[in-house]
Predict the structure.
Amino acid sequence: MNEKDLENDKIEHLLRRAHIPEPSPLLKERITTEARKVWNQTSLELPWQIPLRRLVASAAAAVFIISIANFSSYLALKKWRPGDVQATREQLPDLETLPEMLYSPFVRHLVSVNRRPSITDASALRDYAERVRQALQETQQNGASNEQVPNGGRSRLLPIQLSPDSYS
Amino acid sequence: MNRIQDNILNENQPDNMLREALGRNSPAAVELMWDRYANDLLTFLQAMLCSRHDAEDVLQTVFVRIARKRHRLARARCLDAYVYRIARNEASRLISRRKREQIAKVRTESWLMVTENNQELGDLVEQLQVALAHLPQPQREVIVLKIYRQKTFLEISRLLGLSQNTVASRYRYGMEKLRILLGNLT
């Protein structure tokens, strides 16, 4: 026996001079009563129910994860769907809302003509033709009245070219 | 050889009784569980928590959990290890709750008792308690089970689900630390 073992024996001897008390009868009564109460409240699970319940829980978790993945995929691809493009067109029917810097007035006019619904109704077509005719007549009348005003022999439709760099 | 087989059978007899009571779903199993585990578990929990009051609370939680999960206990390969695992988990939960709530546990609560009514011995026990509280928890568990429950290394290894060598080395390191801590007393 070496010195270390002797030291250990001394320590063990010291430790054994104390003891840890056993649980009191009161504690036993308290704990067993509580445990029995829980015992009676919970029904015994049948052994075959355990794997079945695990299977159901796994299936539910899988369905949940797949539906989350589907939803996130739907959100990610939403802007690329054709139906949504139509919705975008409908959201901007007013030409005033178009960004001006991209379109000249002429292009805006073309866009607006293209965006108007096609005329299929005969009466609407007749009205439209009538409106065009009136517009043409007004233009002709205006042209006739303006011809009496001297404008230097130039067409009024073309602006006066002040210098060769004016159109650049 | 026959003697070894008899020993194994005798060792397993309480296990079988308990499993049978659990299988019959008889509340009498609670009494059997108490008789078999309460004493050792309370000691083990006090070694983990360094508090008799907390150990009693956790012991109650352990018995309630056992009653709730009795079907699992009945099918457990090693009853003792299963019960000690529950106790360890519950005690660890309490320790982490203490840390989370930053409760500075005052380790002045007496959980070691003197065998005789003697003032000098009272002081000694207090020093022992402080020294044990300074040991790492795994070493304290092994020392307390060995000294105060007279368990062998083999029994402790089975209860805690460790190898016998690990238990022996924890005991040895723990005793070395105690020798340093209690150097003035030896």
Summary: Chain B is about 75% helix and 0% strand.
